[in-house]
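Teaching soon. Invent one.


***
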Amino acid sequence: MKLFDVYPRYAIAPVRANDVFVYDAEDQAYLDLYGGHAVISIGHQHPQFTAALKAQMEQLMYYSNAVENPLQEELAQRLDSACGMKDYQLFLCSTGAEANENALKLASFHTQKSRVVAFYNSFHGRTSAAVAATDSPKLRAPINTHHKVDFLPFNAPQKLEALLQQGDVAAVIIECIQGVGGLAQPETAFVQQLQQLCLKYDCLLIADEVQSGFGRTGHFFAFQAYGIQPDIISMAKGMGNGFPVGGVLIHPKITPSYGLLGTTFGGNHLACSAVLAVLEVIIAEALMENATAMGDYFFTKMEKFPHLIPKGKGLMLGIDCGTPVAEIRKELLYKHNIFTGGSSNANLLRLLPPLSLKTTHWDQFFSALKNVL
């Protein structure tokens, strides 16, 4: 048997990690400025995180949602305090795609409508409804094309209202800072108009925080910089610091019923322990504040590269190099031992390091970047 070959892979196999570094079998250190697609939030192998998982593994790793799980209740309370979304309801699942799939389904159940509005360059996942709301036709199989999704540009409230006036839109789903799409951000006035239009035309506003949530932009959720209150919030990635876990936060106006949503692995005991540890570390080590400070330092360092365009906020960042970055990324990795990422914009170098990053790590990166360029 061989692997189903769908991933382009670098010829590096990490075997251990610590904080912002991963190491291969020869003990070569690599600075991780990509965090495994923004998954590593509090740093690789954080001792408090690994201790929490080890302790839980020795007690109970898994049982289904057919029984009481006090860890889920504890997580709901801790999350309420950490993110400030008072009185919201929590549904736990396993991935970001699953979170968005359930968010879209829930909006359709609640409104009894069938159409979705998404935005150009969006990425919401690879499952059926989530990929239909993703602006990448090459990812959609024929079975996905029956979903009714309209795509719009950011900052076009008249076009948005024209669609909502038709009366069949269940939800508008938005990334307040796009990830795979290249770090585009809508204007504040547009996002606030978006919320008002959703209220006016009785459709739900879904904030996709799968990549931007859990402190990555300096706010717990990226939408909080816009002063809005979404009806549904999807999250995953940094939520578990490498343990597969996702979730949906649901406005109290949406009423649950038995069987409405479901999952086999979501909210299991080990997953809850992982998220609880992540929340504790984010708060205790002021990692949201650090994300803001490290983002500011990044933009200061970028002033020495006037021919490049910095993008993003916090530690959800990118550099538009004005030319394809594939070879730049290879040189950074193979010559300077630094992991970086790409996006749907071939010219964009994407940077999603752990929130524990320090200025010395930025200095290492910019020295390497200067050498490569």
